[in-house]
Design brief:
One of its GO terms (molecular function) is 5-hydroxymethyl-dUMP N-hydrolase activity. The chain is an alpha/beta fold and 139 residues long. 38% of the residues lie in helices and 17% in strands. A five-stranded parallel β-sheet has the order 2-1-3-4-5, with helices on both faces. It is globular.
Length: 139
């Protein structure tokens, strides 16, 4: 049975890793369902939105998290929103798996010290995909 995945990555906090997000999302989508495919889009609209737009995003995304089997995040680029999503998933007992490029980031002690979060530092992007297979049970 296909798993439903909420993929979290920085949007307003910076898009430097969008291409990595896209490749991760495409890889997960080969076997499972990613609710947040838009996170990997290079053309993601970052214009200032209205409060109503943000309310819609909050309501949609929290619903997606609640209905996900797992949350997978790339936290190389710090993001307030991603931090919120991780805590939201944790509060609902949804497994959280966090990737980060250790040559570019030093993750927060709040993430690294949380024994409920699984962290996967990587040096090369190729290291990500076998771990995703293990997380999703595809190996």
């Amino acid at each position: 049975m296909k798993k439903t995945v909420y993929f979290a990555g920085s949007i307003r906090g910076g898009r430097e890793d969008a291409a990595v997000y896209k490749r991760m999302i495409d890889y997960i989508n080969m076997t499972d369902i990613v609710f947040t495919e838009h996170i990997g889009l290079e053309s993601l609209n970052l214009k200032t939105r209205t409060k109503e737009d943000d309310v819609h995003i909050y309501e949609r995304d929290t619903e997606w998290i609640r209905t996900s089997d797992v949350l997978i995040a790339d936290c190389t680029n710090p993001s307030h929103g991603v931090g919120y999503e991780l805590a939201y998933a944790e509060a609902r007992n949804i497994p959280v798996h966090i990737f980060y490029d250790k040559s570019k980031a030093n993750v927060s002690a709040m993430l690294n010290g949380n024994t409920r979060f699984k962290l996967y530092p990587y040096e090369r992007e190729a290291e990500i995909y076998p771990v995703l297979d293990n997380i999703l049970g595809n190996k």
